[in-house]
Sequence to fold (643 residues):
Amino acid sequence: MENYVGKRLDGRYEIIEIIGVGGMAVVYKAFDNIDNRIVAVKILKDEYLTNEEFRRRFKNESKAIAVLSHPNIVKVYDVSYGDRLQYIVMEYVEGITLKEYIEQQGIIETREAVYFVTQILRALQHAHDKGIVHRDIKPQNIMLISDGTIKVTDFGIARFSRSETKTMTETAIGSVHYISPEQAKGSVTDSKSDLYSVGVVLYEMLTGKLPFQSDNAVSVALMQLQKDPVRPRQINPNIPVGLEQIIMRAMQKNPFDRYQSASEMLVDIDEYKRNPNVKFDYSYFVDRQPTKFIPTQQLREDQYKTQLQPQPQPRPVQQTTQRQRAQAAAENALAMEKKKRRKAVGILLGVLAAVLVLAFVVWKFVLPEKNSVEVPNLVMLNFQNDVMNNEDYSDFHFQCETDEHSTAAAGTIVSQNPDKGRIERGGTITLYIAAGEEEIRVPDVYTYEYTSAMSILKAANFEVKIEKVINNKEEPGTVLRTSPAHDEKVEEGATITVYVATPGEQDPVEVPNLVGLTVSEAKEKLEDAGLELDNARTEYRASSQERGTIIGHESLGEKVLPGTKIAVYVSTGNMPTSATTTESTTESTTSSSTSESPTQDSTQPTTEPSSAPTTSAAAPTTATPTTTTTQPTTTDGPIMEFD
Fold:
């Protein structure tokens, strides 16, 4: 594994230190020289660069998650897909993971847990609206800042090929304590899988325990499939009934019995916040009413009451003649005949009605069920690799339309119609597929100092060639023009020729190594090489090196034009204390904006040479540094502002 500390990526990202090492990547703290900010850079390990399938997935997913923009989601600023180096540049967040906070507190107070889960659901709703499913929601992937703000991390990292989710192994399952039953058995997942995981996270916050525990991951996965969790109120009786109902609905085994969207779950959360005593009328299963019967004792009581009631007295018998008796018998026979006919007609009509009802039920429910299929969610899959010729989708006919305006990778399905429900077997689903940009525009770097122009062009994945042009009107080193010109569309990775003003025929000189020298010694050495010290951009940084010693500088080992100004980084002689980290023995249990294990020791740049950076007075050093360098919080938890 190559160590990039002290190097500059693409002329832009200056690597300061390692802050996390994981199974597939190393995370570094870095300084963005163009946007003048601290960032986290996750660099893919060398062994994955030779895997074409993994590289393609990495590129597609990186572009997909880059479209997310939400205050509760860690931002992705930049991605690079070079042949020798692939990395993601992310927002640098100071805080601890929600997992660490749960371990500190034991059980999180109800109001605070609701505040946290509300932010998580808002982040997921934004991602789901963009067609992105997280698939690995867990407290280890949720950052908690000292002001109570939640940041969800690692979007899209768990989205790999189907074949990787079919076998139930500890590697394939991932964070098995939080996955949904459909993930445990390797089935297709959607947004409702994330909601199951949110239910588990809320369960853990309010009880201090996980719903399923075992010595190995496979056993836990089987519990997710087969076993019902202990109800939260049996562990913590202080949990309100309505909140327990919300948890249990989110954790239903059948996805159709869960909340169907994050917004639907938020509605019930808001209702609970308005009325903590609310009880929801959830029905997870079809009601089965037992056969009604009347106990023998009840029959006896009814018979006794009937006997006590006065009985009607019979009419006095009247004397009738034979003729009257015959006439009465005829009328009675006619009445009986009419009664029989009406009864037969009634029976016939009843049978006919029953047949019609049965036919309607068969037509409405049975036949469609046999001849229709559930519409799958294909958004963000690659049509050619994931859908076309896939036997899982043999029941559908696909009509493809090109989406010229989508920013997703070429071949990615960005939307579909219909997007849910059931359609006739063999029915058509229209897929809207991203065309992808094959060409990109050349940035405008005219009048820039040529080293800055090189950084900008390299950051845009262009190769750069420098051509000197004798020009005594412009400042030496100024970019006069580029070829191709700015705003022209060219292929990614194309070579851009930069024409730089120079007062005469001058050859580039190599920047000498200034590390370990004093500022005055560095100035003399630069002048001897025909270069200048850039006093305006000199930075002072905390370091274990002797105060006043140069610990780094621009363009080390590069060739630049004579007269170029070089900025140096000078040690203040003070090293900030870093929190001791603990290596996690389970997957992704450290504080990381990319769920990687953090490392110790961080340096902090400052603009004043006379003062060394210090940690917050209100922050103890018990928190673990994260991918984005954690800011420790007190064990009493961050100060919160609730809705």
Q: What stands out?
A: Residues 253 and 286 are 15 Å apart (CA to CA).
